[in-house]
Structures are given as C-alpha cells and as structure tokens.
Specification:
The chain is an alpha+beta fold. It has three helices and two strands. It has a two-stranded antiparallel sheet.
Length: 80
C-alpha cells in the first residue's frame, strides 16, 4: 500500500476514462493533455468549483455529442 499526504491547498483529482476518452462530434478525444491543462490552470479552485469547471469544459468540448461511457469525477482538497 502506498500512502500520500496532501499539503494544505493541494487537491487530488480522480476520474474514470469516461472523461479523458470522451469524444466530440468529430470523434476527437478530450484527452489527458486538455484535462491536465484544465486542472493545472484551475488548481486554486475549491474541489466543487474544480469539478464544475471540468464538467463545463467537457460539455463545451462535446458540443452535444452523445455520451459513450460512464463518467465519474472526484476531487478532494485539503484546506488545513
């Protein structure tokens, strides 16, 4: 078992492949690069705000394309 400790202000972002492999109408994947950039650019947000920003960005990216997989996102942020 591996343990890790978050320092105050750090977040842990967990997700299923339904996020990184989500596709738009042109069959392009959302991808790890786009996801990594989004999380890095918004790292100071609260856990709820980071999750909401990710879901909004994914919605814009998909532009109405149907979901093809389940989607789970969990964000934890240490505040103290």
């Amino acid at each position: 078992m591996k343990r890790m400790e978050l320092a105050p202000g750090e977040s842990l972002f967990l997700y299923t492949d339904g996020l990184s492999e989500a596709q738009n109408g042109a069959n392009a994947e959302y991808g790890l690069d786009k996801l990594s950039k989004l999380v890095a650019d918004r790292h100071s947000l609260s856990a709820q705000a980071l999750k909401s920003a990710c879901l909004e960005d994914l919605k814009i990216f998909r532009s109405g394309a149907p979901k093809t997989d389940d989607l789970t996102i969990m964000v934890m942020r240490r505040v103290e």
